[in-house]
Amino acid sequence: MRSFLWEFFVFGLKQARACIFAASFFGLLFLSRYLPLFGLPRYDFLCIAAILLQVVLFLTRVESLEEVLVLCAFHALGLTLELFKTQPGVASWAYPEDAYLKLGTVPLYSGFMYAAVASYMCQSWRLLRLELVNYPSYKLSIPLCAAVYLNFFTNHYLPDVRWVLLVPAIVVVFWRTRVTFLVTDRRHKMPLLLSFVLIAFFVWLAENITTFLGAYVYPQQRSGWQHVSLGIFSSWALMVIISFMIVAELKHMRERRKAASECRPLFGVRRLDAAPLSVVSSPLQINPRPLQRTTDHGPRTFLHRSNSTSAVRNTAIE
User: Which of 7, 34, 50, 102 could form a disulfide linkage to 112, CB 3.0–4.6 angstroms apart?
Assistant: First the structure.
């Protein structure tokens, strides 16, 4: 029991550490209601503060350059969705306050709310040393990710296919996928689909807080705040799935680049110990005993790499 409580405590600490950008952003959102801003619109204050926060996290090496670029990509994806959803003909939600730093109807700070979700995923991946078991091929995950994202736009003009097509497809594609994570010295495992639901639930709770603090309002909240409907929960679950698939594919691409770099010629000779391009779940081991091969020009020594692991697409990314 004591061991379980310790694991749970450490897990909570790592989760809190992974939420550093999101929690800091919420703190700024709360403080912006009470700080004297001397005429600066609150949305502009949030945008400038979020940029400075990102700079601090990068300079203190809490976030790497690669992670910052991922957050920028999510910022762009979020703004694109916001521009569509807040236009007068759609009006899924609105930003009731003024701002100078905005694009059309969307204040630029709003993209950081999407970046906060991506930041949590990148940090969790590294802190908990996530591994994905039986993760589907990118030939399935990338088209599925694109279809989920496009449905956020097309459902205003065509039937919403999330329940009849997208959710069943997600269940089928990720049914066998498991995510394993390291808390202290033991690995734990859970279905990836369950992790999607849990993350979406906490994002939905966070959205209730952000709407209460006036970050934006839904149509039913214009006459006064009320909790965000559970119907919005499915939208956030789909957004979490999109975010996770993008982060996972970027991690896979990085590992493939690493593996490809090991295939470069060494002094004009292609190394036999080059790792395969597919990502494996456990590190390949180097056998210190050299392998001799005789050629026309005499013996040539190669490092020998044992191939004790199968080249399945499981991920071990720190």
Answer: 50
Phi, psi of 182 (to 5 degrees): -110, 120
Under a CB-based contact definition with an 8 Å cutoff, are residues 46 and 101 in contact? no
Contact assessment for residue 44 and residue 107, using Cβ atoms and an 8 Å cutoff: yes
Instruction: Give Cβ neighbours of residue 292 (< 8 Å, ≥ 6 apart).
Output: 299, 300, 301
Strands 298-305 and 178-182: unpaired
Residue 313: other Cβ atoms inside 10 A: 16
Enter the pTM of the model: 0.77
- The angle, 0 to 180 degrees and rounded to 10, between the axes of the packed helices 231-261 and 65-85 is 150
Question: Tokens at residue 144, please?
Answer: 């599925």
Longest dimension (CA), the chain: 86
φ, ψ dihedrals at 129, nearest 5°: 50, 60
Four-CA torsion 105, 111, 112, 115, nearest 10 degrees:
160
Phi, psi of 296 (to 5 degrees): -65, -20
Strand ranges, E, within the chain: 102-103, 106-107, 131-133, 178-182, 187-191, 286-295, 298-305, 315-316
Task: Give Cα separations from 90 to 18, 80, 149, 156, 232 (angstroms).
Answer: 34, 14, 16, 8, 16
**Contact assessment for residue 136 and residue 169, using Cβ atoms and an 8 Å cutoff:** no
Q: Give the separation between CA 220 and CA 229, rounded to whole angstroms.
A: 9
C-alpha closest to that of 239 among 200, 285, 183, 211 = 200
**Are 4 and 36 a contacting pair, CB within 8 Å?**
no
Amino acid code (one letter) for 25: F
What is the three-class DSSP state of 242? helix
Q: Is the dihedral of CA 59, 61, 63, 65 positive or negative?
A: positive
Task: Give helix 42-59 / helix 111-127 axis angle, nearest 10°.
Answer: 20
| pLDDT tens-digit map of 205-219 | 988 988 888 888 898
Assess whether pLDDT exceeds 90 at residue 130. Answer: yes
CA–CA distance, 130 with 126 (Å, rounded to integer): 7
